[in-house]
Amino acid sequence: MTTTAPQPEHLDVVIVGAGLSGIGAAYRLQTECPGRSYAVLEARDAMGGTWDLFRYPGIRSDSDMFTLGYPFKPWREAKSIADGPSILSYIRRTAAEYGIDERIRYRTKVVSADFSTRTARWTLTLDVRDETGRTEQRTLTCDFLYTCAGYYDYEQGHDPVFPGVESFGGTVVHPQFWPEDLDYRDKRVVVVGSGATAVTLVPSMAEDAARVTMLQRSPTWISPVPGRDRIADGIRAVLPADLAHRLLRAKNIAFTTGFYQFCRRWPKAASKLLTRLSTRALKDPEAVDEHFTPSYRPWDQRLCAVPDADLFRAIRGGRAEVVTDHIESFVPEGIRLRSGRVLEADVVVTATGLRLLAFGGITPHVDGRAVELSEQFVWRGAMLTGVPNFAMCIGYTNASWTLRADLSSRLVCKVLQLMDRQGYAAVVPAPDRKLAERPLLDLDSGYVRRSIDAFPRQGDRWPWRMRQNYPLDAMATLRGDLAGDLSVTPRSAVRSGSTVEAAG
User: Fold this and answer.
1) Which Pfam families does this chain map to (predicted)?
2) What angle in degrees, to the nearest 10, is found between the helix axes of 84-97 and 20-32?
């Protein structure tokens, strides 16, 4: 006897990740492709991604909210550089306003993804966890898979092994896993690191700690920025919210793009400008020369922004200090440096960076074979060679993440519209054999160097290059011809996946 086997649930599109990018992707999909069924799969218990996961003191954006926020949802709060809880609330409000929260499936982790060229469908294996912690494995199929999980490993950060750490008599914490009950009031704190997390932690913890020391191996470029945009206040006071948001977004895009280009084209002049700003804020030229004048050019690594110069004010006020030295070992009372100095500490925060993880840990398979990501190229900043009906969402490194994330989501919608018009079942970028290979992220930061070899590559020219230029990307992504770069499979050439027979 022949019976019809039960079919897994099928959706047109699956979005992985319910953070800032995933919520934005869902809005674009339901607005520009309203006939498509979709769901947002979130491995954690709550939406918000980075802004829900990270709970360390002072967590905030390092980009202005007029560009980090969604173009379709004006940012209405006073601060341009916003704290983490405010950003999380903004994400939640957006999801609720557009009904996206009803499409999110929490505690649902994609553990494998396999595309069949025979049926032009993805088969996703999911670990679905209930509220008691029990996990059940399920299967879901979809036509198009869009990963919006960023490129950070949410389950573990970069945590180097320090000699003698087991002898330390105090508490060691990593910002990614901040203990809710950590009490550092009136205690001595050492923050190891000098990146965006460290420069956020130091002034925030200095408000309550006895003293906070930022210990860095080498200086980082740090720029004071206004925490509140006075021009924005004036514009929002006289113009409707939507119009004001568009104008402010355009203003800030122009500024960040121009400043980045200035840094890359005239690095000596940019270095002098940043040094002058730091000196004005710290009022100590010798300290700026020792601790805030890196050997690398501005934007070889990501530039750290400090709103209202709060880090420099904490140092100037004597509540914090910066030490540039190397760790020799931990000792019971703190950290011994190569110079011989011992930094006494009750709490050590290892702000030593994040780990990169492509696609939230999903390794795409095609017809049962794992795709070697390092051999693939990224097309228009979103789709990959060798992986049909698949896109990833990666933001800018030199500007607000959401600027590129929103372009990627709009590109996905344009590709889906093209598939509908032309009757395509599958599309995949066709590689250009003459491409020169480059790392996906053009930064010399430690967290990038440690993991970037496992990621896809970018090429040396558009549409295979990940340009750090929003105006150019916007024009090319939204107006350029897509079909010429794609290898396509018509619907007539694939076998329907709707009926599977099993003998019994």
Assistant:
1) FMO-like, NAD_binding_8
2) 20
Cβ contacts of residue 6 below 8 Å, gap of 6+?
A: none
> What is the residue whose two structure tokens read 């990018």?
21
Taking the C-alpha atoms of residue 193 and residue 346, their distance in angstroms, rounded to an integer, is 17
CA gap 143, 123 in Å, rounded: 9
Q: Write down the domain spans for the chain.
A: 2-154+355-503, 165-350
Q: Which two tokens stand for residue 218?
A: 């080498």
Q: How far apart are CA 47 and CA 87, in angstroms?
A: 12
Tell me the CATH architecture of domain 165-350: 3-Layer(bba) Sandwich (3.50)
Give, for 402, the enclosing helix (H) or strand (E): helix 401-422
Contact 460, 467 (CB under 8 A): no
Can you tell me the distance from the alpha carbon of 44 to that of 41, in angstroms, rounded to the nearest whole number? 9
Q: What is the pLDDT along the chain (504 residues), one digit of tens a residue?
A: 444 557 889 999 999 999 999 999 999 999 999 999 999 999 999 999 989 988 899 999 888 899 999 999 999 888 889 999 999 999 999 999 999 999 999 999 999 999 999 999 999 999 999 988 899 999 999 999 999 987 766 776 666 788 999 999 999 999 888 998 999 999 999 999 888 899 999 999 999 999 999 999 999 899 998 888 889 889 989 999 889 989 999 999 999 999 999 999 999 999 999 999 999 999 999 999 999 999 989 888 888 889 999 999 999 999 999 999 999 999 999 999 999 999 999 999 998 877 777 777 788 999 999 998 888 899 998 999 999 999 999 888 778 889 999 999 999 999 999 999 999 999 999 977 788 877 766 655 555 555 566 678 888 888 888 888 888 888 887 777 787 889 999 998 886 544 332 222
Question: What SS3 string covers 332-396?
Answer: CCEEEECCCCEEECCEEEECCCCCECHHHHCCEEECCEECCHHHCEEECCCEECCCCCEEECCCC
**Range 337-342, long-range pairs (CB < 8 A, 24+ positions):** 337/215
Q: How far apart are CA 259 and CA 274, in angstroms?
A: 11
Question: Are the folds of 2-154+355-503 and 165-350 the same?
Answer: yes
The bridge status of strand 342-344 relative to strand 334-337 is antiparallel
Query: What is the C-alpha separation between 309 and 325, in angstroms, rounded?
Result: 23
Q: How far apart are CA 274 and CA 257, in angstroms?
A: 17
The length of the chain, given as a count of residues: 504
Pair type for strands 188-192 and 347-350: parallel
Q: C-alpha distances in angstroms, 25 versus 44, 197, 225, 469?
A: 18, 27, 30, 21
> Residue ranges of the alpha helices (H) in 439-493?
446-451, 470-479
Residues 6+ apart with CB under 8 A from 420: none
Output DSSP code: residue 119: T
| Antiparallel, parallel or unpaired: β 347-350 and 171-173 | parallel
Considering only the top CATH level, what class is 2-154+355-503?
A: alpha beta
